[in-house]
Write a structure and sequence with these properties.
alpha+beta; SH3 type barrels; five-stranded antiparallel β-sheet; 10 strands; 68% helix; elongated
Length: 774
């Protein structure tokens, strides 16, 4: 394409661009409606506009309305707060301004409702309530009589049964009771619909009575499920029969008082009276209920303290809190009542259901959380039993493994002898998952607590009408993060248990075969593999968490790639060390606790990291040697160790006698169990190795486990010196013979010079021999 054509195309594009801008500006030129325009002026302006202009004007007005709340939010916070306080003050003046008249007005309202002076005739109320009450009582008595035998069978349960078996029986009994309530409700509703027409004024009041009766029955159902007052075998709480029955009776009476207060509140509401009397009756009813619960708490304070302090260490935080639990609970109850009162008075009748839901959320959370903890404890116990461990139940209901204690005698590296039996190895392998399972159970318990709390909290926000879109997104992100952590933890626990079992299996095999006293190469490789997997899981989980929080991880991945590439080019020595170490371990060149020599360094392998190994010299020095610098390795801890001891005896020594002495030494060493465990073969005399200048060079040979040759050598040398002395055998030592001509007498000075010369020759020979030995 030529330059002329390119310029032409550019001008064409510029022309059309300007045209589009002008068109858009023309379209945006929408006639504005004055703020003080009358309806006739608005109609005239709209009549002279096109459809596009009308749509544009509508969009502009909608845009202004959307921006109005934002402009409102820009007000001074102090003014907003003052307005809220003024609203609260106004509501309290309205509700409590005529509180002195409540004692006269509320009874008058109730009397009007039941005397026929209100909207509902008295005859309809009396007929309906009496008839329905008799039908309700009759149906319940008939149903209980028919299900008495079944209930007795369910309640006849041994105390020794487990928690979930008891809960299953209780669920069966609760299902029977619930079916009875449903059956009675169906009968009552049938009679109710038959007696009253659609337009009857008595129907709302009868329905209010029915709701309060259902409330009392449902509270009794829950109380029987939790307290189990008449079936001690089914009771899972640590309560006596007297305490359970007392609390149950208190709960029933409190529920009846609450039902009566609610019925009065419904009557006030149905008579169309002022809102303040309805709210005031609810406040008084709730206050009476809180006082009743507080009296129950104080009445049972001593029993509750004893139950909370059971299996608790004296002086602990739980022990001290158990002494004042009733004070804390009563304070919490009245504080909650005050909060409910404030919300109820400020927000009106619309806050009744949210407030009740908020109050009920506390026991719901406690019950659901407790059931979740019991479920985790039960499943952990089943898992431990299935895995071969014997769990024991602690005071807090948790299951712990029975610890297997094994005694080991360890000496220095030169005298170490580690030996396990097959039974102890099996016990260790069986108890491996227990600790990991308990840690995982604690993690699950915390996760359940947080998850249940979040679900209830988000539900309460929804009930209160709070915009929870952001909250739901946050809860969803948190649940995703929690799920990721749980899956990663489960995966890590499974990998750790599998690696530990593999390591113990290899150790058991080595101990059974009487092999090396050092660690296994597979154990080292598996430890490195576990570290790598742990780092990998941490990185992946971190990226998933960041992604769940809404953070774009693409730059992180790109940066990690560049960083990895830079490391690949700039850290070649590090990569060389890591790769060399992996191949050294795969070749089984050394293991942890092996005694090796690398170049001029010698010592015990104390630690194997990703890029280097650490050697501990027997004098205490610690050598850190990168794998990439190792050319060869001398391992002194593999399979067995052969020691050959050389010594000199005079030329006239009886060799057969020395062989018998060595056999005697072997017998005495074998009699010691610790030394016999180190020997893999008998201590043998190999006879004369060489005839040297000063005597016969003989040798003793024995085979031991790695590291045990040094202990056997000390014992053999000590016994040889002792027995040789008893048998009159001396070790040969260098001697110098000086020949003097016959008949020649030496002066003392000459004798001294000859002795000095002979000593010098003996020293030179000894030094030369020592140098040759090295």
């Amino acid at each position: 394409m030529s330059i002329r054509n390119q310029i032409l195309i550019a001008f064409v594009l510029i022309f059309f661009g300007c045209l589009l801008v002008n068109v858009s500006r023309a379209a945006d030129a929408v006639p504005q409606i004055p703020a003080d325009a009358t309806s006739e002026q608005v109609d005239a302006i709209l009549a002279g506009m096109s459809d596009e202009q009308v749509r544009a004007l509508l969009l502009e007005e909608l845009r202004k309305e959307a921006l109005a709340p934002a402009a409102t939010q820009e007000k001074n916070l102090a003014q907003v707060f003052s307005a809220k306080l003024a609203r609260v003050h106004e509501r309290f003046d309205y509700l409590f301004g005529d509180a002195a008249q409540a004692a006269e007005d509320i009874p008058d309202v109730v009397f009007k409702a039941v005397s026929g002076r209100g909207k509902v005739p008295l005859i309809d109320l009396a007929k309906g309530i009496v008839l329905l009450s008799l039908i309700w009582i009759g149906v319940r008595m008939f149903y209980r009589r028919k299900t008495r035998n079944l209930r007795n069978i369910i309640e006849t349960t041994p105390k020794e049964w487990g928690f979930f078996r008891k809960v299953l029986r209780l669920c069966m009994r609760a299902s029977i009771d619930l079916f009875g309530i449903v059956l009675s409700s169906v009968v009552i509703l049938g009679v109710y619909l038959f007696l009253y027409e659609q337009s009857s004024e008595a129907k709302p009041i009868i329905l209010s009575w029915f709701i309060t009766v259902l409330l009392v029955d449902f509270v009794g159902l829950v109380a029987r499920f939790v307290l189990v007052p008449k079936a001690e075998g089914l009771r899972y709480l640590p309560l006596s029969n007297e305490t359970a029955m007392t609390v149950y009776q208190w709960v029933l009476w409190i529920s009846r008082i609450a039902a009566l207060g609610l019925l009065i509140s419904f009557l006030i509401l149905l008579q169309g009276e002022a809102e303040r009397w309805y709210l005031l009756s609810l406040a008084v009813t709730s206050f009476i209920v809180v006082c009743g619960i507080s009296l129950l708490v104080v009445w049972e304070a001593r029993n509750g303290t004893a139950a909370l302090r059971k299996n608790t260490q004296i002086g602990s935080l739980r022990y001290q809190v158990a002494g004042i639990w009733h004070v804390m609970l009563v304070t919490l109850l009245f504080f909650g009542w005050l909060c409910w009162l404030v919300v109820l008075m400020v927000r009106g009748s619309g806050a009744v259901i949210p407030a009740v839901a908020t109050i009920l959320s506390v026991p719901v959370y406690c019950i659901v959380n407790w059931l979740a903890q019991q479920l985790v404890d039960c499943m952990s116990g089943v898992a431990l039993k299935t895995g071969g461990c014997q769990p024991i139940e602690t005071s807090e209901g948790q299951f712990e493994e029975a610890k297997v204690e094994s005694e080991q005698e360890t000496t220095t590296v030169n005298t170490e002898a580690v030996e396990h039996t097959q039974d102890s190895s099996d016990q260790v392998v069986q108890s491996l998952p227990a600790t990991t399972a308990l840690r995982f159970c604690n993690f699950l318990k915390v996760s359940f607590r947080v998850g249940i709390f979040l679900l209830i909290f988000m539900g309460l926000l929804n009930i209160w009408g709070v915009p929870v879109r952001v909250g739901l997104d946050t809860a969803g992100s948190f649940i995703g993060i929690l799920f990721t952590i749980v899956v990663a933890y489960i995966l890590w626990a499974l990998i750790s248990v599998a690696i530990e079992r593999k390591i113990d299996a290899y150790h058991a095999k080595d101990n059974e075969s009487g092999g090396s006293a050092g660690g296994d190469r597979f154990a080292t490789l598996l430890q490195l593999f576990r570290k790598f997997l742990f780092g990998f899981l941490v990185v992946v989980v971190s990226l998933i968490i960041l992604s769940s929080l809404g953070i774009d991880i693409t730059p992180l991945l790109a940066g990690a790639s560049v960083f990895g590439l830079a490391i690949g080019f700039g850290a070649q020595t590090l990569v060389k060390d890591i790769i060399s170490g992996i191949f050294f371990l795969m070749d089984d060149a050394f293991r942890v606790n092996d005694y090796i020599q690398v170049g001029n360094s010698m010592g015990t392998v104390e630690e194997i990291s990703i890029r280097a190994l650490k050697l501990r010299h027997h004098r205490g020095s610690l050598f850190t040697i990168p794998f990439g610098t190792i050319n060869f390795v001398t391992n002194m801890s593999r399979g067995f160790a052969i020691m050959k001891l050389e010594y000199l005896v005079p030329f006239d020594t009886d060799v057969n006698k020395i062989k018998k002495i060595i056999k005697r030494i072997n017998k005495e060493v074998r009699e010691d169990p610790d030394l016999d465990a180190l020997l893999l073969d008998d201590i043998k005399s190999q006879g004369v190795k060489a005839i040297e200048q000063y005597g016969l060079r003989m040798r003793v040979k024995f085979m031991t486990k790695p590291g045990g040759q040094w202990s056997i050598r000390k014992i053999v040398y000590t016994k040889m010196r002792q027995i040789f002395k008893e048998e009159g055998i001396e070790f040969a030592r260098p001697t110098v013979a000086v020949h003097v001509p016959k008949g020649e007498q030496l002066t003392p000075e000459q004798q001294q010079e000859l002795s000095a010369a002979a000593q010098n020759m003996a020293d030179d020979d000894a030094a030369a021999q020592a140098k040759g030995t090295k």
